[in-house]
Design goal:
This protein is of the alpha/beta class. The protein is globular, with a radius of gyration of 16 Å. A 7-stranded parallel β-sheet has the order 1-10-9-6-2-3-5, covered by helices on one side. The protein starts with a strand and ends with a strand. The protein contains 7 helices and 10 strands.
């Protein structure tokens, strides 16, 4: 794990450089991004990056079970702030579908995700004050799922029903940017509580993570 100081531009540059390096290795690159408050300042800067966006696949680390038009949708956030300008040319796979429930959506989503290069080239994660990442919360059985690429998860109200990438898929990404800014989150990282999702993730990530804080 590498730690560095956070600024939205520094993080956007880190992600863009990771995509450029991935595109040197292969015809396509893959990026998974968080939603919520984590990326709001970073997405517009990343969208301006000069790279071959038409060769980039973008998906989400997790999603609340909400249609893209809902204000709480991670897909909606990505479409408004990231898939704009130069980045509008990127190929995007959202988690939402017309399925009746997150559980019934999983087979179709697994099928669509096969279009992307795996393992992921880059993952952009935030961290909650409880040590959660993506929609992997402390004590949730979703944290123990090791098969497939996605699973259902439970989050706090008001958006309890969710879908998330499983821990191994997040941890096995070639490059990870983990945003953990603020004294509270930095304290969680220093405590090293190995039961928390963020520390389980870091233990699996084989030192591929750069922490911005």
């Amino acid at each position: 794990m590498i730690s560095t100081s956070y600024s939205p531009q520094a993080l956007a540059d880190f992600l863009a450089e990771g995509l450029r390096q991935a595109l040197k290795r292969a015809p396509f690159a893959s990026l998974a991004v968080s939603g919520g408050n984590t990326p709001k300042a970073v997405f517009p800067l990343l969208a301006q990056a000069d790279l071959a966006w038409e060769r980039v696949w973008i998906t989400l680390t997790d999603e609340r079970w909400l249609p893209p038009g809902h204000e709480g949708s991670n897909e909606g956030l990505a479409r408004r702030l990231l898939l704009q300008g130069k980045a509008e040319r990127a190929r995007f796979i959202g988690f939402w579908s017309e399925a009746s429930s997150p559980e019934s959506a999983l087979p179709g989503l697994e099928y669509r995700l096969r279009q992307m290069p795996w393992p992921l080239d880059i993952v952009f994660l935030g961290m909650g004050p409880d040590g959660h990442i993506a929609s992997l919360f402390p004590g949730d059985p979703a944290l123990e799922v090791e098969t497939g690429r996605v699973t259902t998860a439970m989050g706090p109200p008001p958006y309890t029903d969710r879908i998330t990438l499983v821990l191994p898929e997040l941890a096995h990404a070639r490059r990870v940017a983990l945003l953990a800014n603020g004294p509270e989150k930095q304290a969680i990282l220093r405590q090293g509580n190995q039961t928390l999702p963020v520390h389980r993730f870091l233990a699996l990530s084989n030192e591929s993570a750069t922490v911005f804080g």
